[in-house]
Write a sequence for this structure.
């Protein structure tokens, strides 16, 4: 199994280490429930160094990215990031990712740990398709870089104490909290350039930091030191999964795979059919016009029951009682105290308030389709 | 340090047994609840159902996983603990007390000799 540069930090903190996509990572330090609730109420620090970083630069970078990714890369001004997807010719998802414009012609892609090799192979293949004169350089920087995510409502209390502005690149800021959602800036830490973005995978306010692997331990320790007085705790992959499930963020390999399109997954907002040609566009345009065969829904269990889990069958109710799909992600929601999940169902059942049944160990438990996100902060 | 009460017997699969005449009470050990962390759901067998030793008879679920509970002894379920169904957290807070799972009428008391003593169980879990 691979280990991130923060492996011994996890051991020292008492992290329970498990295998995730070929990596030895902490699933929890105290408990998933405790870490999840800490992120919702205070702050949590996650090691995300296993994720991949790809740097793409050159005068042809924007055009290349716009041909290869579904969202409109022309919208990316310097210092701006966007959620986007990479599709194959059938419109199936190769990966979902974030794309940031760091400078005039340098972009950073943050890709899923489990998809690093597949994504690189796919990107190289697309590079060979474009005209050589468009001059695009692609570099896999995953080994050189580490990353952490610090998430929660109390992050704003201490994050400005960490790095001082003004920024050296990206969005022009004087302090970290000047960053708006999805913006990224280059700041200095211990003589190194680090990139910090106002993004995350938990549904809370927070930041993600990309830094050279050699200093990521310093980054981790410093953030922990500054944040602990404000309730910051380290949080593992278990809480990362329950947090993102509550807000219905997809996870590649669950809601997304090569035989599923972004439209089926309800991610049409991140597919720009008007921007010109991109890989998968013809299939997606047709799906938009004619409709999809399956639709991702969020659901809640309506009675006390065992939690729904991936692959559990989903049935509709009533006289046409039939199996209509399966759960892609599911858990007991720490915030809501009830079973929640997402799954694919036939489009006619993909309407809020539609009653469903989830088959758990041979027995069917009642559930209901709910709008996304399942968990919303009470404002 | 895992709590291993001296008056109980143990199964390799981390269930404990408290014998009272011809009946036994069954639950999961402190070590088991600690490994699971937050228990969110317990599924218990119906009273009247019969199980053989080693047969899966209940399920305990944490946030991340569903784990089968194997009956350490053979017999007929006479009572189940509604309290853990209503409040699964009892399994974590009181695994040997109010977090018990079921009471079973022993059909083969000789099986009790196959179970582990507290010391043997302690050795198995490595004094953790």
């Amino acid at each position: 199994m691979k280990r991130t540069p923060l492996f011994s930090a996890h051991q020292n903190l008492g992290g329970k280490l498990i295998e995730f996509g070929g990596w030895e990572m902490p699933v929890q330090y105290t408990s998933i429930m405790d870490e999840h609730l800490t992120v919702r109420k205070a702050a949590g620090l996650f090691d995300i160094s296993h994720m991949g970083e790809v740097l793409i630069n050159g005068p042809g970078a924007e055009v290349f990215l716009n041909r290869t990714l579904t969202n409109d890369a022309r919208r990316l001004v310097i210092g701006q990031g966007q959620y986007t997807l990479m599709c194959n010719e059938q419109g199936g998802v190769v990966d979902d990712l974030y794309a940031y414009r760091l400078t005039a012609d340098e972009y950073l892609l943050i890709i899923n740990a489990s998809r690093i090799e597949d994504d690189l192979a796919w990107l190289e293949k697309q590079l060979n398709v474009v005209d050589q004169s468009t001059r695009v350089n692609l570099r896999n920087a995953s080994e050189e870089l580490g990353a952490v995510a610090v998430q929660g409502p109390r992050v704003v209390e201490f994050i400005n104490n960490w790095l001082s502005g003004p920024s050296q690149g990206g969005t022009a800021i004087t302090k970290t909290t000047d960053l708006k959602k999805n913006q990224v800036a280059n700041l200095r830490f211990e003589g190194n350039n680090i990139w910090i973005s106002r993004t995350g995978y938990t549904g809370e306010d927070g930041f993600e930091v990309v830094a050279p692997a050699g200093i990521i331990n310093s980054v981790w320790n410093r953030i922990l030191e500054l944040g602990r007085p404000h309730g910051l705790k380290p949080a593992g992959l278990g809480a990362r999964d329950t947090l993102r499930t509550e807000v219905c963020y997809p996870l590649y390999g669950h809601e997304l795979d090569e035989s599923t399109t972004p439209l089926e997954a309800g991610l049409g907002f991140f597919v720009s059919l008007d921007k010109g040609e991109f890989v998968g566009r013809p299939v997606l345009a047709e799906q938009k016009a004619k409709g999809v065969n399956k639709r991702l829904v969020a659901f809640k269990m309506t009675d006390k029951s065992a939690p729904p889990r991936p692959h559990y069958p989903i049935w509709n109710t009533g006289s046409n009682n039939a199996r209509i799909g399966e759960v892609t992600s599911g858990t007991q929601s720490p915030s809501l105290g009830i079973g929640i999940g997402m799954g694919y169902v036939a489009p006619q059942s993909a309407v809020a308030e539609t009653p469903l049944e989830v088959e758990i160990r041979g027995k069917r438990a009642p559930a209901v389709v709910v709008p996304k996100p399942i968990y919303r902060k009470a404002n | 340090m895992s709590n291993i009460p001296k008056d109980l017997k143990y199964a390799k699969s981390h269930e404990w047994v408290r014998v009272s005449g011809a009946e036994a009470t069954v639950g999961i050990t402190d070590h088991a609840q600690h490994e699971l962390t937050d228990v969110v759901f317990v599924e218990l067998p119906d009273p009247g159902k019969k199980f053989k030793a080693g047969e899966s008879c209940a399920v305990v679920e944490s946030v991340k996983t569903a784990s089968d509970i194997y009956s350490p002894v053979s017999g007929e379920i006479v009572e189940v603990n509604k309290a853990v169904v209503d409040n699964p957290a009892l399994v974590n807070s009181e695994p040997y007390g109010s977090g018990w799972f079921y009471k079973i009428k022993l059909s083969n008391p000789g099986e009790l000799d196959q179970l582990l003593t507290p010391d043997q169980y302690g050795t198995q879990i490595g004094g953790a």
